[in-house]
């Protein structure tokens, strides 16, 4: 007891202050004291030179012919599908048998590892109205929402060990556009959002759909660059693949996201402002389509490659190709 009484007050207080600083460092938001302009004060990497998101400037994008992207197990129904409101976003985790976890190989990822990247989670960013919401911009224009599918390099055993490593993480980004009908499984998905209306709530989907039902069906046209996570700790050396074909969502479904709350306030405008490109190169995938030889159209043959996901049929693909290829050559996209 005597030894405890003689302990300097500073020694007693120090651990408390350390614990408090750790708690504060984990508390980030999108406005006020813990908004994006202050992230670098608690997370040094958020002040790095290769941060995300960015403005995708079509004029300055460098055309590059990447290997074909291959998608495996994107048609596999997960064993469990958990949606949660973590106060920053709607986070979705899916569980699979070990040999049926969705993965991606090729494209910009081929330069990082021959093993490919495995699915970890997906989440969303959105705005309070239809003019803002996406994180990456196209020619300084925002979409109303954006989906991020987070992948882990299979050279690492888990997400924690891959985080912060060169080429350890990849993110596939998809933009949303308002439509009369929605893509894939978003009607059932957004119907469950009212059950996670407040921070900390979680719900399990009883009849989940495969991962492929939540992304775009046209995956040939994309941009790629090296960036970072768009939330703290803002780890860099993340490979980004931004697909140009948007996902359709209805106004009603998007409003279901806007009704979510975090810390008694609406969870809205949960997107980080764009960051300087600095010395990085933005690439756009070169699509070489010979309309006189339809066999040259790149798509996965599901019958001859077990587990690979066939994202589209030829009948759906061809109209998009005829419109898209001339636009790619001139770097003009009428949809942006």
From TrEMBL:
One of its GO terms (cellular component) is cytoplasm. PANTHER family: CARBONIC ANHYDRASE, CARBONIC ANHYDRASE 7. This is Carbonic anhydrase 1. Residues 26-286 form the Alpha-carbonic anhydrase domain. Transmembrane segments: none annotated. Residues 1-25 form the signal peptide. Belongs to the alpha-carbonic anhydrase family. It holds the Pfam family Carb_anhydrase. SMART domains: Carb_anhydrase. InterPro entries: CA_dom (IPR001148), CA_dom_sf (IPR036398), Carbonic_anhydrase_a-class (IPR023561). It comes from Drosophila suzukii (Spotted-wing drosophila fruit fly). GO terms for molecular function: carbonate dehydratase activity; zinc ion binding. Keywords: Signal.
């Amino acid at each position: 007891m005597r030894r405890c009484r003689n302990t300097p007050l500073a020694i007693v207080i120090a651990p408390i202050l350390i614990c408090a600083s750790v708690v504060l460092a984990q508390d980030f938001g999108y406005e006020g004291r813990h908004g994006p302009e202050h992230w670098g004060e608690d997370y040094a990497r958020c002040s790095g030179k290769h941060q995300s998101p960015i403005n995708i400037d079509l004029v300055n994008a460098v055309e590059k012919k990447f290997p074909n992207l291959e998608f495996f197990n994107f048609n596999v129904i997960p064993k469990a599908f958990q949606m949660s409101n973590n106060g920053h976003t709607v986070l979705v985790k899916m569980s699979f048998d070990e040999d049926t976890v969705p993965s991606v190989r090729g494209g910009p990822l081929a330069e990082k590892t021959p093993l490919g990247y495995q699915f970890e989670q997906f989440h969303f960013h959105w705005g309070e109205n239809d003019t803002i919401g996406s994180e990456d911009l196209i020619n300084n224009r925002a979409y109303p929402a954006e989906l991020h599918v987070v992948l882990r390099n299979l050279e690492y055993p888990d997400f924690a060990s891959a985080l912060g490593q060169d080429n350890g993480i990849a993110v596939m980004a998809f933009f949303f556009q308002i439509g009369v009908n929605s893509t894939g499984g978003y009607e059932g998905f957004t119907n469950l959002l009212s059950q996670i209306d407040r921070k900390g709530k979680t719900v399990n989907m009883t009849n989940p759909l495969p991962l492929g039902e939540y992304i775009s069906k046209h995956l040939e046209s994309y941009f790629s660059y090296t960036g970072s996570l768009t939330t703290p700790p803002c780890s860099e050396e993340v490979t980004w693949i931004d697909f140009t074909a948007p996902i359709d969502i209805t106004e009603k479904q998007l409003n279901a996201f806007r009704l979510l709350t975090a810390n008694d306030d609406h969870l809205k405008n949960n997107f980080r402002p764009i960051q300087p490109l600095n010395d990085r190169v933005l690439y756009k995938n070169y699509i070489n389509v010979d309309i006189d030889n339809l066999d040259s159209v790149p798509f996965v043959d599901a019958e001859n490659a077990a587990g690979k996901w066939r994202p589209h049929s030829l009948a759906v693909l061809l109209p998009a190709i005829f419109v898209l290829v001339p636009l790619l050559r001139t770097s003009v996209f009428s949809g942006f």
